[in-house]
Amino acid sequence: MKLKTNDNVKILSGKDRGKTGKIIQVFSAEGKIVVEGVNKIKRHLKAKGQGQSQKGQVLELSAPIPASRVALICPKCSQPIRVGYKTEAGVKKRVCRKCKEYVD
Ligand SMILES: [Zn+2]
Q1: From the CA of 12, how far away is ligand 1's center (Å)?
Q2: Do 15 and 28 fall within a single domain?
Q3: How far apart are the C-alpha atoms of 34 and 25, rounded to whole Å?
Q4: Predicted confidence band of residue 79 (pLDDT cuts 50, 70, 90)
């Protein structure tokens, strides 16, 4: 997984195409991410409690999307980019393929 929490990404396909947002969760095993404000779904909570003292609610939350549907936005050149890797002093770092700057 080339993406991390707090990365800014641009959505490349789907109904939120063109939107940008911050990654709030990463599921590396599934290759999915959750982007703030993207792929919103509504969850209906049923009324609960005796005599339904708690009213039903509608919650809006962001559902995970495949990481392949987004591009990382480079913090240096502000463009949607492809991520490369460079090893410096034994540490693997992410690098922008456009401006060659480190992304981390
Ligand atoms: Zn860059």
Answers
A1: 18
A2: yes
A3: 5
A4: very high
